[in-house]
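Example record

The entry below shows one chain as it appears in the dataset: sequence first, then structure tokens.
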Amino acid sequence: DSNFVGDVYKLPRELRKLPISQESLAIECAAAGSRDAVLPPDVIGINSHTCNRRQQHPQFTMTEIGVLTIHVKRAEGLKAMDLNGKSDPYVRVHGLHQVAETAVHPKTLDPNFDETLELYGDKGGFVSQGLVLRVFDRDWGKKDDKMGEVKVELFSLRQSASIDFIEGLSSGCGQLVFSVSFAPLPARMLA
């Protein structure tokens, strides 16, 4: 197979930059039931001493590389941040060293975002690090005001294809309704 260099599986160049964490490797090694399993060093940017033995079997996958989809449905009961008694909210999602954000919804305290955001990386990394969703009020010409944030764990993605959330914002004003799912990249994209 042309994707093997010696006994190490080599991903295509465009997928090698995906963030795969040390924590993810440890979680995946434990999930595989072996301390001796290893991911190719060129995939995760660490040396082969992380685990004791390299795997040569192409079906053996330590991590699932794929897409984490965050469906930001709506926010409810947000605090008025503008003089007109409204806000111009948007949501910024942080996960696995990536950021994505929704569009701004002007003059509302109950925005119906209904937007899908995508982050790319390994499932184990997302599971170990979780997500942070921050709600901001857009202030045109000034620094945006932070309205609150939500930190969520994604451990349930190990057994479930999707997780639904209704979470109160850290500010105590309002809540955020969203769902998270993970889909592995098709094998043809990894070969």
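Notes for this example: The beta strands are 4-5, 8-9, 65-76, 89-95, 98-101, 115-122, 131-137, 145-152, 162-168, 175-184. The chain is about 15% helix and 35% strand.
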